[in-house]
Specification:
mainly alpha, 3 helices
Length: 152
């Protein structure tokens, strides 16, 4: 074996060129190709198993190369789906962080508004109520209601 990296397309081409339209058969320790009416010997082997392996490899190798390529394509697609899901997850977490930050900001604003209202009410000598007086119109809002009749 060599350290040369394998290229599946080159290996597949070799398989197709080597076996093309040939029908391979084996003798006891030999491999033949059937070409018309004459058989041509391709190789001699020391063991019968090696001759069987040679014949089977001519069919098995292209099959497994194709299967390997299909699995590589599936893995590439899965990798892309995973990357897309990761991007989506990251975007959702970013939006969640933004929402949490906004909630904290609004909570702080509400707290300061409550404290301001309490201070104003204490300053005027009023008692602090848990529920606001909805029947009283503030002066700054009264101008918005001028020239407005009763609503039906």
């Amino acid at each position: 074996m060599t350290d040369k990296p394998r290229n599946w397309q080159e290996d597949m081409k070799l398989c197709q060129e080597a076996t093309g339209e040939l029908d391979m058969i084996r003798g006891e320790k030999q491999v033949f190709t059937q070409c018309g009416f004459e058989d041509q010997r391709v190789a001699d082997f020391e063991k019968e198993e090696d001759a069987i392996f040679m014949i089977e490899a001519c069919e098995a190798l292209p099959y497994w190369i194709k299967q390997s390529q299909k699995e590589k394509e599936r893995a590439d697609q899965a990798r892309e789906r995973h990357a897309a899901a990761s991007r989506d997850r990251d975007a959702v977490y970013k939006k969640l962080e933004e929402a949490e930050s906004l909630i904290q900001q609004k909570d702080a604003e509400i707290y300061h508004l409550k404290k301001s209202i309490e201070a104003l009410l204490m300053h005027k000598g009023a008692h602090v109520h848990d529920e606001p007086d909805l029947t009283h119109v503030q002066l700054e809002h009264a101008s918005l209601l001028q020239d407005k009749g009763d609503t039906p």
